[in-house]
Amino acid sequence: MPLPPRWHEVPAAARFAIHVAALAALSLSPARALEPRVPYVPTPQDVVERMLEIAKVGPHDYLIDLGSGDGRIVVTAARKYGTRGFGVDLNPERIRESTVNARRAGVSEKVAFYQRDLFETSLTDATVITMYLLPQVNIELRPRLLELKPGTRLVSHDFDMGDWKPDTHIKMDAKDKYGGAGGASEIYFWIVPARVAGVWRWALPVSGKPLDYEVKLEQRYQVITGSAAVGGRAVKLQNARLRGDAIRFSFTAEVNGASVKHEFSGRVAGEAVTGSAKMSGARLQGQHDWNARRMTTTSTGLRELEPRVLHSVHSAVH
Ligand SMILES: C[S@@+](CC[C@H](N)C(=O)[O-])C[C@H]1O[C@@H](n2cnc3c(N)ncnc32)[C@H](O)[C@@H]1O
Questions:
Q1: Among residues 89, 97, 186, 276, which one has the fewest Cβ atoms lying within 10 Å of its Cβ?
Q2: What is the position in ligand 1's atom list of the atom closest to the CA of 118?
């Protein structure tokens, strides 16, 4: 988008409003299908570096930049971290620039650039997805992002994802922003959460006998809450946390007449969790394998996060 004269004298908030208004006009135009809905505004190089640091990008990652501009995010990840990946952009001029930039950086073997609509791009190979798009475009992408493999990392420059709150959010000054006019940049980071809503059951050996445990989890994106029961008696679920497919929580329950703290941590794979359970009490201590099964799934209230199998009933594993 050509910058108006004296653009750098316009306050940052006003620049942002103009930017969004221009984009809104673009997205309403009859030529919408042919025009990029997001204009080309490159991410300043220091912001690119920070985005990659926040996502902890490494040599085993596969990075996709949606609307890749001159390819700087994909090229920087390949040059600094040996990351493979690709970028897509509707503008053929950007694709040509990116290909030259990759060659100059000596990373042509690791990266590729395609002239393609980001909404028609398969994202399933990605371990990291980067974006500098627009709020509305992020929201439109959100259902597809939530379908990705749990643990996939998402980094967005400047724009959030509505009520899906980021796992990390930072602000930084970027002197090269808006063609050198300077401004503040925001970086939003999310980890795609596993689907964990539902009733989970398992048993642990206590004094040689199996004791039954049940946890009912509710989920809103990566935020989990719920209730627990031990041997049929309710206890308060504490410190519940979900990060990708890694889940943990704790509770304190009375076992054989004494209070015992329980700490669980494991990985979710479909209808099973495997991990370890630590018990610590005055009379009872120990570490056990933890194998939980989901008995019933419950609605998350979010279409994107609906468990894939609703109300499936499995036989208990004790
Ligand atoms: C704000 S720029 C970001 C460029 C680069 N990712 C960066 O951060 O420096 C957005 C880019 O998205 C591209 N774009 C917009 N809509 C697109 C679409 N539907 N599919 C692919 N690219 C698109 C534009 O051509 C533009 O180059």
A1: 276
A2: 20
pLDDT band at 300 (very low <50, low <70, confident <90, very high): low
* CA 2 from centre of chain: 32
**Yes or no: domain 7-191 corresponds to CATH 3.40.50.150:** yes
Mean pLDDT over residues 295-317, rounded?
49
Assigned fold of 198-305: Lipocalin (2.40.128)
For ligand 1, mutation pick of 15, 68, 98, 159 (most atoms within 8 Å of CB): 68
**Nearest C-alpha to atom 9 of ligand 1 is from which residue?**
42
Distance CA(214)–CA(253), nearest Å, equals 12
Cα 139 to ligand 1 centre (Å): 16
Residues of the chain with CATH 2.40.128: 198-305
pLDDT tens-digit series, residues 119-158:
999 999 999 999 999 999 999 999 999 999 999 999 999 9
Q: Is the pLDDT of residue 168 over 90?
A: yes
CATH 3.40.50.150 domain locations along the chain: 7-191
Rounded CA separation 230/250 (Å): 12
How far does residue 259's CA lie from ligand 1's centre (Å)?
57
Structure tokens at 222: 């990566």
Query: Does the Cβ of 69 fall within 6 Å of ligand 1?
Result: yes
